Amino acid sequence: MARNTESVCKLCRREGMKLFLKGERCFSPKCSFEKRSYAPGVHGKRGTFRHKESDFGLQLREKQKARRIYGVQERQFRRYFRSALRVQGMTGVTLLVTLERRLDNVIFRLGLAESRSQARQLVRHGHFLLNGRKHDVPSYLVEVGDVIEVRPTSRGNGYFRLLAERGEPRSLPEWLDADFARMTGRVVARPDRQSVDLPLSEQLIVEYYSR
What we know:
Blueprint: H1 8-15, H2 32-35, H3 55-70, H4 74-85, H5 91-100, H6 103-109, H7 116-124, E1 128-130, E2 133-134, E3 147-150, H8 158-166, E4 176-179, E5 184-187, H9 202-209
Antiparallel strand pairs: 1-2, 1-3, 3-5, 4-5
Helix pairs in contact: 3-9, 4-5, 5-9, 6-7
């Protein structure tokens, strides 16, 4: 399985904005983007973000931002786009809603992981139950009524004990319900565009793949 092995802070710097890929660290003064907001590389300080981007450049950067936020590789992202094309309605909105429905994203949104990459790892290691059964596929698309919970045998894990001590997450989307004390969550509705609180322009992504 392909995965990104370079510094995720470089990804934020390349996009010129915080992508919140390191969880709590991104909210702290230790965040690398706060110290070096210029692009990575020897020419980064020369003002990479000052020059006028071409239309293609803007479309590419928007697609890359979405990929990096959700931690999806190019081939899989393209498959999501093709699936969105076959659904009646706005393709860009359908694409973002599909990405929101990924199990790793839902676990992150529930506050059971500090970042999507951590959520992905926890799912692969089998720490969660989906509708009462062990589930280890991060890309699974949740449906209304699905119940996600930390496995009883995993709740004694040092990470989950520490998580319980920190208390509830900062916010919870309206389409999810959670009992943080029991470390369970439920999908109560399908996400919509308003619930995707990310600085993304889905139209630029559609334009990129429609060239």
